[in-house]
Structures are given as structure tokens and as C-alpha cells.
Write a structure and sequence with these properties.
With 335 residues, this protein is of the alpha/beta class. The chain folds into two domains: 2-124 and 318-331, Rossmann fold; 128-313, 2-Layer Sandwich (Dihydrodipicolinate Reductase, domain 2), CATH 3.30.360.10. 33% of the residues lie in helices and 23% in strands. The chain contains ten helices and 14 strands. The protein has a six-stranded parallel sheet, with helices on both faces. Strands 10-9-11-14-13-12 form a six-stranded mixed sheet. The chain has a two-stranded antiparallel sheet with strand order 3-4. Helix 1 packs across helix 10 (315-331), helix 5 crosses helix 7 and helix 5 (126-142) crosses helix 10. The protein is globular.
């Protein structure tokens, strides 16, 4: 089982290597691929060093699967070339997500849409992934009409430059550091909240917000679900959090909701007011599950639930979901 990781030197690519090793995906040969400026660098996988190769060399090595995390432009250029060579591509960028000819997959929700003819499979947006994992069992039982979501997203979703900015600002505040640092954001992020993720569109929403709207309907295979989102960047590194208000077609029982979520694949319920138990990025960090809590009725309208959803965006929101897709494909004879 030859496996290529494209973008192996990046934040998510490094996490993909970690997750492949931790989940014991049967890699017989690792092919780390990156841009020309990274060719020749070394990455570590299961205690061994591997030299980074170019895109062309990655294709020539004929891996069974290539897991991409190299940006939308790179994916648009190179994923079709890998696919043409008979290599299955699992892509973490936004390049293919809303392409009608490509599957957008969260294994706990819709892995059954995959076939042997799918050569480019899209990995959804991190904030969408964790939300639909929690919503799917409730949608099956009660049918979702509308979702109102506000996100509180980690700086790791932007990348290493954003993490560096956060800690440089913290060092400046705590130690009086005068070192210059590159800005990933227009504004300071430490001790601040930035109500913008990605660029603004003509309708006043950001691309990140519209991704959540469109991707949710595609993954859950129901265009009748109405979604509105506000996405926010906060000075956290452990994972993304979401406040989600869900209106159903049918009445629900709160205890049944808790039971449905507790038995759902990939979900851990942390919901105990008496002990102040609820999901937090501090606890979700480096875990693969989606954590759900603060479950309560919305008293302002019928058949409506409030919930709080947290997950590690680099793992379940990116690397783990991609590896889970590969695991599903392997176990079902699609690799």
C-alpha cells in the first residue's frame, strides 16, 4: 500500500502523517510530496526519515492513494494528473467540494456514496465536518428544517503563520518582546476576536460561512435544510467550537437526543450541568471525536434544540477525516 501525502511539510500534512501512524493505516511505502522549494527536505514517519519528492515524482511512484493538503490552486492543477494515473485522491482543499461530479465525504455521515469510479474525493471544511457528525443522527430521527451556527475557530485553521502571530503577540505582551513578526491576520488575534474567516462576498457573508451552508446540504443529501452561519476566529489552538441552534420538523425528546448522540459514531457527549461538564478545545485537542454538550431546548420556539459542538480541527476537521475516507475505501475494496 503506497501512500502519498501531498503537502507533507505543512501543518495539516504533518498531522496527516501523525494520524496515519497512530491509526496504523497499512502504509508499505510513504511518498511525501511538496512544492519544489521543499523537495529534498526530510519528514519523519514511524521513526523513519523520508525525503520529500516533487509532484511529478509522486505520480511516477504510483501510490494507491494520495492525500492532498496543499491548497486549492495546487489541487486544481495536480489532483486530475494523479487521478489520470490511476491514483485515488482525497483532497483537503476547497477546490472540489462543490463540484457536482465529486463526492464530499464525512465517513460517519455519507461514506456509502463512494464507488470504485471516484478518483477525486473531497474532504469537507473543518467546521462543517464536526457539525454534520453531530447533526446526522438527529436529522435521521427528527428531520432538520433550519440550522443557525456561530463558530469560534482556532488559529490553527489558518496555519502556522497564524499560530506564530498569536504566540508572538503573547510574548510581546508578557515579556515586552520587540521582535517583528509576520501578520496572518489584519488585526491582533491575542486578547481579541475577529468576526471574519476568509474573504467577504457580495451578500455580506464570508466564503467560510457559505461553505458551511452549501457543504452541509451536500453531505447530508438534503437541499431542504436551511443553514445560516457566522464564523469567528478566536485566540485558541486546540480546536473549533460551535454554538448550534437546530429547528426540526418533528418534536423531540431531550433524553432521546442525548441517547442518540451518545450512540452515534464519532460522537462523545459531555453534558452535565451539575459538574460543569461541557466540551472545550482544551479537552478536544489531539482527539479524533466530536464532542457535544450544553444540550437544551430553545424556549423561544417549538421543536428547536441548542447544542455546543467542539472538535480538533486539524484532526477530525482535516487529517483524521481524510484518513478515515482512505480506511473506508480500503475496507470496501475501493483502493
Amino acid at each position: 500500500m503506497k501512500v502519498a501525502v501531498v503537502g507533507a511539510t505543512g501543518l495539516v500534512g504533518s498531522k496527516m502523517l501523525q494520524v496515519l501512524a497512530e491509526r496504523n493505516f497499512p502504509v508499505t511505502e510513504l511518498i511525501p510530496v511538496a512544492s519544489e522549494r521543499s523537495v529534498g527536505k526530510e519528514v519523519e514517519f514511524k521513526g523513519k526519515k523520508y525525503k520529500v519528492v516533487s509532484m511529478a515524482d509522486g505520480i511516477a511512484a504510483k501510490p494507491a492513494v494520495a492525500i492532498f493538503s496543499a491548497g486549492g490552486g495546487t489541487s486544481l492543477e495536480w489532483a486530475p494528473q494523479f487521478a489520470l494515473a490511476g491514483i485515488k485522491v482525497i483532497d483537503n482543499s476547497s477546490a472540489w467540494r462543490m463540484d457536482a461530479t465529486k463526492k464530499l465525504v464525512v465517513p460517519e455521515v455519507n461514506a456509502d456514496v463512494l464507488t470504485e469510479n471516484d478518483f477525486i474525493i473531497a474532504n469537507p471544511n473543518c467546521s462543517t465536518i464536526q457539525m454534520v457528525v453531530a447533526l446526522q443522527p438527529l436529522h435521521k430521527k427528527y428531520t432538520i428544517k433550519r440550522v443557525v451556527v456561530s463558530t469560534y475557530q482556532s488559529v490553527t485553521g489558518t496555519g502556522k503563520k497564524a499560530v506564530d502571530q498569536l504566540f508572538a503577540e503573547r510574548a510581546k505582551a508578557e515579556k515586552g518582546s520587540t521582535e517583528e513578526y509576520p501578520m496572518a491576520y489584519k488585526y491582533q488575534i491575542d486578547l481579541n476576536v475577529i468576526p471574519q474567516i476568509d474573504v467577504f462576498l457580495d451578500n455580506g457573508y464570508t466564503k467560510e460561512e457559505i461553505k458551511m451552508v452549501k457543504e452541509t446540504c451536500k453531505i447530508m443529501q438534503d437541499d431542504n435544510i436551511r443553514v445560516t452561519a457566522t464564523t469567528v476566529r478566536i485566540p485558541v489552538v486546540g480546536g473549533h467550537s460551535e454554538s448550534v441552534n437546530v429547528e426540526f420538523e418533528n418534536e423531540f425528546d431531550l433524553n432521546e437526543v442525548k441517547d442518540l448522540l451518545a450512540s452515534a459514531p464519532g460522537v462523545i457527549v459531555q453534558n452535565d450541568d451539575a459538574t460543569q461538564l461541557y466540551p472545550m478545545p482544551l479537552w478536544a485537542h489531539e482527539k479524533d471525536e466530536v464532542f457535544v454538550g450544553r444540550l437544551r431546548r430553545d424556549d423561544t420556539q417549538p421543536k428547536t434544540l441548542n447544542m455546543w459542538i467542539v472538535s480538533d480541527n486539524l484532526r477530525k476537521g482535516a487529517a483524521t477525516n481524510a484518513v478515515q475516507i482512505a480506511e473506508y475505501m480500503l475496507s470496501n475494496g475501493l483502493l
